[in-house]
Queue: 3 jobs
Job 1
Amino acid sequence: MKRLYFALLLVLCGTASPLSADTFDPEPVDPGFEGGQVSGDVSELFGDSAWFGRYRPHVGYRYQAGDTIGRIGGLSSFDAFFPVLEGDDSDWLMFIDARLLLGDDNHNLGSNVGLGARQYLPEYQRTIGGYIYHDTRDAGYANFDQISGGIETLGDIWDARLNWYVPTGTTRKQYATTHVNNGGSYQFIGHYLYGGTFTRYYQAAMKGLDMEAGAKFYTNDYMDLRAYAGWYHFQASGSPQAWGWKSRVESRISDMVALNLSVQNDRVFDTTVNFSVGIQWPSITGLRNGPRSDLKAWDRLGESPERLRAIVVDNQEVQDPNGGLIINPSTGNPYYFMHVATGGNSDGSYEDPYATLAAAFADPRTQAGDLIVYDHRDGSETGNFVLADNTQVLSEGPAQFINSQFGSLQLPDSGTGINPDITGSFTMSNNSVLSGFDITTTGAGSSIIANGVGNLMVSNNTINHNGAGTAISLTNLTGPATFDQTPLTKTDGLGVSITGSQNAADVTFTNSSITNTNGNAVVIANSGGTIEFGQITTTNGSTAVDIDDSSANITIAELNTSNTTLAPLDINNVSGSVTLNGGTFNNSGFSGVQIVNSNNITIKNTTINSPSTYGINGVNVNNFNFSSNTINNADSDGISVSGSGNGTISGNTIRSIVTAFSTGIDVTLNGNANVDIDNNTITSVIALAGSGIEVTASSGDVTTRIRDNQITSFVDAFGNGIDFTSNSTGVVDTTITGNTITNTIGAFGDAITFHGTANGVMTTNISNNTINNTAGAFGNAINVIYDDGSATTTISQNTIDSDDVGNLFGTSIYLNLNTTGTTTSYITENIISDDNNLALFTDGIAVDIDRGTNNTLFINKNKIAQYGGVFDDGIEIVADTISGASANVQIHDNILNGSAGIGGRGLDVFTSFGSNSLLLDVTGNNTDTSLYFEAVLGGEILVEDLPNLQINNNGASITTIGNVQNAP
C-alpha cells in the first residue's frame, strides 16, 4: 500500500525529481536475463526502503513533430511512469502511466492518466499486458474527455497491440458559423427566407481503435530497429468514417532514448507524417547501465504503452442544404414572413398561406409588427388595413428587394408585373413599407394615411382616388416618408396633404406623378424638413399647390395646370425654401405664382400663359431666383417682386401679344440686396404696355446688375425700357450694360432712365447698351437724374438710334445734376445716330446742372450724328438755376455733326444768374456747325486756352456771348 500511496502522490504533485538514497546491493539476476552487461541497477537510487523491486519509477519527455490522426501540429508530452505492484520474482507488474500534453497549434493542454498491468511468460519469452486510461484534451474550441485502453503482446522479436478510444460526456461542439452569398437561389421555408451557403463549424471527438504489429529487423551493440504496420478506424457524428492504414519505424538508441517515424493515411485526415523523440530517465529496464540494444520481453514490463496520446478530434464543416436564415441588418433578427396566396387558409406560412390580406392582418403575429406580409396573388380585395410598426406589405408584382447581411436581395417569386387590386386604404406606421398594389378609394376617406409616424416607404403602387377626400394624408410626421414609382390619379378633392410635420420630416415623391382633375394637387402647412415632388398636373380646381407657414425646403420638378381659379402655385410665410423647376400654367384666374412673406424662392423653366394678373408676383420675398421662364400675356406685370437679399431674374422671356402688361420685370428692394437681372427677353407686340424693366431701391445697401436684356416694342406704346429709381439713403451700386432696347413704329418712353431721389451714395454704370428707334417716337435714350445724394456716373460705349429710318427722338443722353452732393460723371465713347438716314432728335448729350458746387464732368470721344441727322445741339450744358451751381467740365475728342448744317449747334454751353459758373476744358472736338458759349444775367463761363479754342478744336466755328472768359 505504501507504493500505491506514493504513486498517487507522484500523479497529483507531478513531481519528476528523483529520490536520492544510499545504494544497496543488486538483486540476483532474474531467470532468462543475461546480466553480464550490467554493473549495477537503479535500486541504488532508492536506498534500502524495499518499496520497489526490479522496475522503478521513471520520467520522460517526448516531442512529436508533424500532424497525425486527429491532430494538427506537434505535441509535447511530459511523462511519469510509476510501478505500483510487482511480482516477487518480477515477472508481473502493475503500474500508473501519467502525462501532461501541450499542443503546438494552440498551446492548449491535455492529459493521460492510466493504470496498466503486464505479465512475463518465460515459457514463451513474451510479455502480455493491458491498460485503461482517462484522457483529456483542450482542442482549441472544445474540451473533451475519453476512456481508452488496450491490450498488447511484446516479444524479443515481434510485437502486437490493439487500442480502443471512447469519448465521454460532450463529444461534439459547434464553435462557429459562416453564411456567405454564393449567388445561389433563395427559398421560403415556413415563415422564413433561407439562402446562401450556411456552414457550421464543429470539433468532434472520435471513437475508434487502432492496431499494429511489427518485428525487430536490425540490432547491434548500440541500437535496434523495429518496423510496424497496422490499421485504424475512427468515427464521429458528422464525419465520414476514417478507415486507414499506418506504418511506423522505431529506433532505440539506448534504453533511455527512442526515435519514431510514422506515416498514416485515411480519407478524413489524408496522409500525415509524424516524427518523435522520446527521452526517459532512469532506464525502463531498471538497469543503471541497461542495454543499448537487444531488449528482451522481460525488460519491457517497465515501458509506457504505445498508443495515441491526444484524443482524436475532427474539425468539421457542415453545410446546411437549405442555406441560412436571411437577416434584417437593422434589427439583427431573421426576416419573418406572413404569406398570402389564393387557396391558403392556415397559418401564413409559405406552404400554407392565408387567402386574404384581412386574414393575415388578423393574425396576432402581424399585429405585433416587425415582419413582411407577402401577397402572392393577382386578384382583388376590399378592406382598410392598418400596418403595425416595422411591417412591410409587399406583393409579387414588382421586383421586391430587402436589405440583408449580403446587401440587397430580390425576394423569390417577385417581379411578375401583376399587382393585386385593393379597394380601400392603408394606414402606415413607423418603419413601414407598402409596395406593389393598385389602390382604389372613393369618397371622403384617404388611400394612404400616416399620422404621427415616420420612416415609411410607399413604392411601386398606383393610387386612384375619386371623391372629396384627400388621397394621401400625411400629418405630424416624425420621420421621413418616401413615395417611389407610385403615381396618383385624383378626381375632385385634394391629392396630397402634408401638415404639422415640423420635426424635419422629409417627404419625397420620386417617379410618382400627381394628376388631379377638378381639385387641388398639394397642400403643405406647418411642415419642416425636405419635401420633393416630381410631376404635378391639375385641371380646373383653385390652387394646384398651396404652401403655408412652413420651414420646409420644398422642390417641385414640374407643375402643369389649366384653368385654376386662383394662383396655380401659392406660397405664404415660408421660412425654408421653395423651388419649382418647370411646367406650364394655362389661364390661371390670378397670378401664375403668388408669393408672400417668404424666403429662398426659385421659379425656373416654367411657362405661364395668360394669367389674369401677374406672371410671378412676390411680396416681401427674401432671396429669390426667377430664371428661364416664359410668361405670355400677363394682364399685369410679367414678374413683380418686392423684397431683399440675393435676387436673380435671368433668362426669362416675357411677351405681351394683343394684351398690355404693366411692366415686364418690376422689382422693389426694401433692404440690403444683391440682384442680377440678366439675359431676359421682353417684347410688346400690338399692345399698350408699361416699362420693360423697372427697379426701385427703397432702402438699404443695394447692388443691382441689369445686363444683356432684349427689350422690344413693336407697333405699340411702350413705357421706359429700363427704369431704375433709387430712394435709398444707403450705398446704391447699379450696372446697366449690354442691353438692347428697340422701338419700332411705336411710341416709346425713355430707353434707360435712372433717378436718384435720396441722400445716398450712388455708383451708376450705363455702358455697352444698344438703343434703336426706327420710324417711331422715342423719349430720351438714356436719362439720368440725381435729386439728392452723391454719385459717380459712367455712361459709356452705348449705341443710340443706329440704322434708323426717319424717326422722332428725344435727347439721346440726358444727365440732370440736381444735388448738393459730390458728383463725378463720365460720358464717353457713345455713338449717337451714326447713319445717313433722317434722324430727328433734340440733343445728342444734354447736361443740366441745377444744384451743387462739387460737380466734375468728362464728356469725351463721343460720336454724335456722325453722318446725318437733324438735332438741336450735339452737346448741351446748362447751369441756370436760381440757387446757383458750378462744375468742372472736360469736353475732348467728340464728333459733333448736324445734317448739312440743319439744326442747332455742335456744342451749346449756357449759364445765367449770378452764382452759376462753369469751368470748361474743350479740346480736340470736330463739328460741322459751331461751338457756342453764352453766359448772361450774372452767369460765368471760364474756358481754358480760350484764345486758341478754334485751333484746339480743328477749326470749329466759335461763338461767345456774355461773360465768357479765358480760365486763369
Note: Residues 1-49, 803-808, 835-839 have pLDDT under 50 and may be disordered.
Job 2
Amino acid sequence: MANPQKDFLFVLIKSLSKSEKRQFKIFASRLETSSNTKFIELFNILDKSENYDEKLILKNGVIKKVQLSNLKSYLYKQILVSIRLNIPSQNIRYQLREQIDFATILYNKGLYRQSLKILDKTKQQALENDEKHMAFEIVEFEKLIESQYITRSIQGRADELVIQAKELNYRNTISSKLSNLSLQLYGIMLKTGYVKSDEEYKYIDDYFNKHISRLDKSKFEFREKYWFYNANLWRSFLVQDFLSCYKYSYKWVTLFYDNKNMIFLNPVFFLKGNHYLLESLFMLKYKSNFKKYLELLEETINDPRFPVNDNIASLSFLYLYNNKLNYHILEGTFAESEYLIPEILNKIKIHNEHLDEHHEMMFYYKIACIYFGNEKYQECILYLEKIINNKNLSMREDLMCFARILCLIAHYELGKDYYLENQLKNTYKFLLKMNDLHEVQKEIIRFLKNLSTLYPSDIKKEFIKMRERFIELEKNTYEKRAFLYLDIISWLESKIENRKISDIIKEKAKLSNR
C-alpha cells in the first residue's frame, strides 16, 4: 500500500475545496461515457477515504489492478485541467498565458495579423505588470512571425523588435544573476550555517561583492531591485549583521508598498519580505516599528484584493502568527499571549499539508517560551519534548540545541533533581555531536552542571557571575544570535532579584526607546 503522504493524487484530492470538487464533478460529467466512468468512480472513492488504501479501491471490482496506475494519472490530469479552467480571472499571469495560447492558435491557422494584434496587446500588459520573462517570450514569437511572413504591419518593425528583445534579455539576465546569487547564499546558509569567524565573514563578503561589482544599480527596475535586496538580505543574515538585515528587508517591503499592484501580483514575495523585516526588528528589539509593520501586514492580508489560495493562506498564517508570538516575547507579555496558543494549534492542523516540520517545531518552541515566561514549566516541557523527540530536524541543530537547554532550565525551575541529572547527561551528549557548538551553549551547560554542587548560600553569587559572563558574550558578533533563542540574561536577573522573568523583560521593554 502506498504511503498516503506520498500518493500525489490522494493529497491533491484532499487539498480541493468544496467548490473545486463541485466544479470538477460538473467538468467530469461532460467527459462521462460508458468507457470512462471509472476515473469518476476513483475520484469518489478517494474523496470519501480518510487514508489512501488500494485494497479499498479494488474491493468493489469496478477498477482492476492493472488499470489503476493509468487511471490515477488520467484523473490527476483531469483535476488539474478542471482547476485551470476555473482560475479567478484577476490572476494576471493566467490572463497573459491564455492570450499567448490564443495567439498561438491563430498563428497555427495562418491568421498572422490577428495573432500579432493579440501579442502586441499582451506584451504591453506584461510590461505594465513587470512580467519581463513573458514579454521576452512574446517578442520572440513576434520575431518569428515577422521573419517568416511579409505582414508589412509596421514600418521599421524589425529594428523595434530587436531593440525590445535586447532590453528585455538584459533585464532578465540581471534578474537571473541576482536570483542565482540569492539562492547560492541561501544554500551556503543551509550547508554551513551563520559565519563563525572573521575568515568566514571575509569569504562571504568577497563572494558577494564579486557577483554584484559589475552591476549598474541606477538602471534597476522593480524586479532587479527586488532580487538585489533579496541577495543583500541573505548576505546580511549569513554574517549576522542585523542592522543590515533591517535595512534591506525595509527596502524590500517599501518597494512593494510603493508599487501596490505588485503586492497582489506577487503576494508570496510580499509576505516573505515582511517576515524578514519583522524578524530583523525582533533581532534588534525595535518594538515600536515591529508593532507598526505587524499591524500593517495583517491589514494588507485582510484587504479584499489580497489573493487567496492554499499556499498564500498557509504562508499568511505562518508569518503572521509567528510574529504575533515574537511581539509578546519581545514585550514580555506572556500571560496576555496565551489566547494565541489554541488558535495556532488549530491552524497548524488546518494547514498541516502545507507546513514543513521545521516551521511546526518553531511554533512549538515559541509556545514553550510563552509558557516558560508565564512560569508554567510543565506545559513548557511538554512542547519542548515534541521538538526533542523529533528525529527529522537534522538540518536545524540550533533549534534542537536550545530546545534541550530551555528544557534543562525548566526542569531546574521545577526542582526535579533526578530528571535534571538525566536531562544534563542527554543534552551534553547531544551537544558533543553538534557541528557548530557556540561558547554560549557551552557556558550554559557548565553553569547548570555546577549548580547542583553549590551550597544554597553560594547560588546567588554564581548567578551574578554568570550574568556578567553572558553580558560579555552578547557583545560578540558570532555569539549574540544565541540570545535571541533564549533570553538567559533576563532569566539570571530574575533569579538574582527574585522576580518574575516576565516583569524583568517588561521593564527592559519600557526602558528601550525603540
Note: The first helix runs from residue 8 to 15.
Job 3
Amino acid sequence: MTGTTPAHRPGAGGSDSPDGGGRTDRRPLGVPDLCLVALVGATGSGKSTFAARHFKPTEVLSSDFCRGLVSDDENDQSASGDAFDVLHYIAGKRLAAGRRTVVDATNVQHEARAELVRLAREHDVLPVAIVLDVPEEVCARRNAARADRAGLPRRVIQRHQRELRRSLRQLEREGFRKVHVLKGVEQIEAAELVTERRFNDLRHLTGPFDIVGDIHGCRSELETLLGRLGYDIERDALGRPVDARHPQGRTAVFVGDLVDRGPDSPGVLRLVMGMVAAGHALCVPGNHENKLGRYLKGRKVQHSHGLAETVAQLEREDEAFRSAVGAFIEGLVSHYVLDGGALVVCHAGLPEKYHGRTSGRVRSFALYGDTTGETDAFGLPVRYPWAEEYRGRAAVVYGHTPAPRASWLNNTICLDTGCVFGGRMTALRWPERELVDVPAERVWYEPAKPLASEAPGGADGRPLDLADVAGRRVVETRHMGRVAVKEENAAAALEVMSRFAADPRLLPYLPPTMAPCATSKEDGYLEHPAEAFAAYRADGVREVVCEEKHMGSRAVVLVCRDEAVARERFGAAEGVSGAVYTRTGRPFFDDPAVTEQVLKSVREAVEGAGLWEELAAPAPTAAPAPTAAAASGSSGSGHWLLLDAELLPWSLKAAGLLRGQYAAVGAASGAAFPGALDALEAAAARGVEVPDLLARQRERAADAAAFTEAYRRYCWPVDGLEGVRLAPFQILAAPGRNLAAVPHDEQLAWLDRLVEHDGTGLLRRTGRLVVDTEDEASVAAGIWWWLDLTAAGGEGMVVKPLGALVRKGDGRLVQPGVKCRGREYLRIIYGPEYTRPENLERLRVRHLGHKRSLALREYALGLEALDRLADGEPLWRVHEAVFAVLALESEPVDPRL
C-alpha cells in the first residue's frame, strides 16, 4: 500500500502509461478506506470536480468552503488562516472517528502538506496524495469562466505550477504513503478510484477462531495443542508438519513470537507458514519475528534472547527455506481486526485508539507494547499496564508478557503462559471464549525471572473506574437500544455505590423497579387484577402467571458451589462463597457469617436438586473439552447461580422504617382514639347530639386498627436465621447462560425442586396460578385467587407474561411484570383512611407513565447486565449496566407506586 502509482512516478521518463504510448485507458487509483487524502493542484486544475466525482460529499473538506464559513467570501485570502484552522479541526474529528477525509485545497506548498501529514500521523492513518497536473492554459481558461475568479492574475497560476513541479519529487519523502500523479485532462477524466481495504481490516472474517499464544520454537507442544483443538496435521515426505486443517473450518490465529529459545523454530515456522499459505491460519508478527526478519535482511542485530538458537537451527535449513521465512515475516501485518470488529489480535496488546490504524507508532505498540521507563529487580523493563485502563468493546487477544495463567482483564487476555519456560501453551477458542492449554514437555529456556502477572488479571482487575460512571451516561442495550442516565442521577448512584454497596465484584445484577397495574375503578379498590389481565390482553399476551407476592425485602442471591469458584470467577475474598444483597446493592446481613449460613442452605438445596449441571451452559461439542476454562464465566469455569428472591420477614430489613413511619402512626392512633371515643360516648350518654361525629371517629379508629394489623402481619421476631425465610422466584443466570428469558413455568418448576430439597426450612415456595387473559372463566379464577390470597393476609400478587421476555406487535418490550397489591396492604402505603370514597377518588389520579417507563428501562439494563455476564464480558462492562439501574432509581417518581 506504499509508494507512487508506478506509471506516474515522478521522473519516470515522461511516459503517461505503462507502455509509454500515452494511452489514457481507464485505470484504478487505489485509496485506503481510512486515510487522509490531499488533492494537490493549481487553482483551476479541477480538484473540486474530481472530489465530487470520486468521493462522498461528506468526505470532502474544501478550503474555499471553510473560507466562506469564517468570512462569508470563499475568495477572501485574508481569511485563509482561520479557514485552515477550521478545516484541520474538522479533519481531525473525522479521522478520530475513523472516517476517510479528503482535503480539497491547492496543497502545492510544502508547509500546507506538512500540516496534513502531521494530522494523519497524529491519528495513525495513511496520508495519500493525488496530484492533478494540468497545463497552465487549461487552468487559466477554467478560472476565466468562473465569475468569482475571472480577474485572477495569471501569475498566481504560474506560481502554483512552479510549486507543483518542485513538489512532485519530494511527496514520498514528506511522508505520503501513496502518491497518484495524473498528468493532463485525459488522465484525470480516465481515473477510476478504487477503495482499498486496510491490510489489518479483516472484519468480514467471523471465524470461529482458535487463537494460539506465544510458541517460541516449541513445535511438539504446538502439535499437541492443535490436536486438542481438533486440527488434522498434514506432514511432508520427511514426516515434518507442513499444514493443519480443522474439519469444521475453524481458523487458527497466531499472536506471534513463533521463534527463539525453543528447540525447533524452523519446524514451527514450516507448520505456521503452511497453514497461512493454505488459508487455514492467520498470523501477526511478534518482536522476535521482527528481530529475525532484520537478521535475515543482513542487518546487524544482537544474537540475544534466544535468537542465537534460532540462527543455529536455520543454518541447517536450505537457502530456499530461509528466503521463504524472510518473505513470510516481511508480509506480516501488525494486528488484525476480526469478527465485525469484536476481536483484535496482536502480539503485545493494543489500546482502542489504535485498532485498525496504520502507522509506525501502531506497529511499534503492537510488537513491543509500552513501558513505564523503569526497570524491575531483574533489570527488565516495567510494562505499562495498558490493559488495566482498557475500556474498548473489542476483545483484545495478545501475548508477549509471560504469565502463569491466562485470565481476562477488561476485555483483554494475554495468552503467553510461558511454554518455553516450562509453563503451558494456551489457545483461546473464539467466540466461545474458552481456553485450551497443554503443558510444556520440559523447561526449554530458563526465564530471566519467575512467571508472574505484572497487572491484576481476570476477577482481580478493577471492576469500575470513575470515568466509567461519572457524568451523563448512555448504555447500549440489546433489548431497548440506548438508555440514558442523567449526570445528577449518576452522581447519586456513585454516592450509594462508594459508601454502602457490597463488594462490586459480587454485584453482577440489580433488579428493576416494578410498575403497579392500572388504577382500578372497582368500588373500594385502588388496584384490582382485572386491570392487569386487560392490559396484558391488549398487549397481545394471552397467558400470564400470577405469582404470590411475598411481603419481605427484595434480595439477590449469588451462590457459588464453593469458595474456589467464587474466588476464580468473581474474585471473592477468602472465606466468601457468594453474596446476598438488597436491590440497591447493599449487603443484606451485617454479619458475613450469617450470609454464609444462608448461602450454605441454598447451596445444599441446589446440590440436592441437581441444578448445578442442569443449568450451566452445555459444553461445546466442536472440539475436545478444554483443560482450563476462561475466567470470564463461560461453561467449565465452575458452578454458580444468581437468584432473584424475597427475604422475609419485612421487619428483618425494614425495622427502622417500621419504627419511624408505620409504628409511630399506629402508636399515635392507639393513644388518641380510645380517649376521644370515650369522651364522645360520654357526651352522647348525656344527650349531646354527636352521632355523626361519633360514627366518623369510630370509623377512623377502625381504619387505624386495620392499618396497625396490616403491617404487623408482615413482622415477626427472628433469632439468627430462626424465623427467616427466603422465597426465590426466578433464577437469573448460570455459567454461560442468561436465564431471565426462560418461561416462568419452567423457572418455578426448578425452584419447586430447590425448595423440596431444602433441609433447613429456609426456602419458601411461591404460589402461582396461570391465567388465560382471553378466557373469562380463567380471568375470574385469577381474580378469586387474588381475593383469597389477600383476605388471608397476603400482600397481593405479581402478574407476569408466562413467556418471560415478550414483545408487542411493534417490537417494543412488554412490562415484565406488574404488581397488584391487596386492599389492606395498600393501607400501609396510602394511609389508614385511604379507602374512604373521597380519598379513593383523589388517589385514583395516579400518573403511571414515568413509573412504567422507568420499569422498562431498568428491566432492559438488567437483561443487558445478565447478557454481558453470560457472555463472559469483563466486570466493568457488566457493572456499566448495573450502575445504570442504580442511577435510574434516583429519578423522581411517586414512591407509593
Note: DSSP finds 29 helices and 35 strands in the chain.
